[in-house]
């Protein structure tokens, strides 16, 4: 398999070199505007719109039209198409792990996700929310992704990569659209979008609803299977299916007038099941819920004082919850850990953790263009995050020696009792200042230099620089030399976890840091053909890990890890004819755990993605795509065989009818029913889910949408 992958890559590269050679010397400057004029723009790299080939970052833009070609039903299916980014799964809720360039962790706080440029990071685990529940796509106008560090602009957690989801405006919707989708796993989705004007305001309203029972692939053995073997019980529900039922409601509002924009949104999650279990033991009854609502007000004036000043100010608020809808069982009824004669937990080990957070942000920045060949940007801001309420009911205590649950009696509310509750209520303040200069110091050369200073109330300050040298080597070839440093703030679970049978916090943690260097090329020999190549190397320090220590039950958070990595990403986009478009990418990465001098594990060494758009008849589009995940090593200490490679082939058929008012589509996901699995966490003395986390088999979806 590895040989075949490398052969395919070699042939792909050979073809690219051949095309470059054929086109070398074509200096027709009249084609410059054609090559770059229609190119996707990105603002994520600098805060200002710039063509992707000339942006001072390795970036990808995915449009709403791309999303339809993919046939995707959720954000994760779109992100899997980006080179160097793989979407793995965590056992709890099957939450996505966005693994950039081999940087893999269970709660995935090393990736910053923005909605319209505003972070949606939660304090508890530093991720998007443990009750994520996916994100529907109909309200999305475009997705901008930077691979590599972004802390010089965005601060904390813009570490391995940055994902910015940009929602639709009146101009994107242009009227009204309604649609419905139904398919496998008792899934159905419905949406309604409207964009128009009223009283001098441009208004966009977006509503999306989804309900699914989720795929039901089988977990052969789980954590309770292991404890059954140890204590002679028979409580495990494995073999049994993963539990992925959920109900989602998303609403968004966008109101614009002159220099002002008001946005508001709600992400409501209900009936959110536990996936492979909160403690890696199957739980078919536990359910979570979450309400996440946000509002932001932006003022943007590109000629604030004079035509040389471009000023933007923004105020935003996010409220987010993790709530328990039905009792969550860490271990099933009949679990017995030998604490008392008979069955310790006839109703199961019940733990209901609830977290309530609020986040407020204010920032102001300005571009100044009055200098010759220089463009200066300065900005400052303030963030206040408050984990203001922690609630918990449970029926167990932690054995201080073994770390195993022992009976507490009937279900008990331990909220506010610091001797029993799982987490302390805390808050975080962050003041920051940044500056960036873009210097056109010579023809076809542009240097971007940036620096950001952050001060945090709970762990001190950090400074993060960036440098990007962009060289327009030829009219159709761009070369980039990039350097960046980034940091990841410790989550509140890492700092303040208490009374937890598995992990304990440490308030003395330092932030994780990473330094990355990159060399990138963007080549467009003709208007139909585009190649991009990026090479990277990174050094990841002060990795926060939960480690065992003498006299401590469970594991305590320490800055204990170090990882290095290098690799490359190759992209190609080829419009063979007016009716046939082919694109693909190949990514390679090699990452080393410096503490063990072994492969860091879990993330794929090779990824191949191919997609075609074929209009085989007028208004009939066929979109096949292949995603091939190759060569994933285990982490040090995991003696299981390496996880199998997998390839997933999807097919989407789309038809426009009645002058594009009606659109129908039919998709098959995982057409060949591949046995695809993502790595389960390694545990000691034995891995609880030994046969990894199974992904969905073959599934079918059909949709109808109407525009008027």
From TrEMBL:
Report TM segments.
none
Q: Quote the cellular component terms of the Gene Ontology held in the record.
A: cell outer membrane
Q: Which UniProt keywords apply?
A: Cell outer membrane, Membrane, Receptor, Signal, TonB box, Transmembrane, Transmembrane beta strand, Transport
Cite the TonB-dependent receptor-like beta-barrel domain residue spans from the record. Answer: 272-671
Q: How does it sit in the membrane?
A: Multi-pass membrane protein
Q: A Gene Ontology molecular-function term?
A: siderophore uptake transmembrane transporter activity
The UniProt entry's sequence similarity note says: Belongs to the TonB-dependent receptor family. Hemoglobin/haptoglobin binding protein subfamily.
Q: What is this protein called?
A: TonB-dependent receptor
Q: What is the lineage of its organism?
A: Bacteria, Pseudomonadati, Pseudomonadota, Gammaproteobacteria, Chromatiales
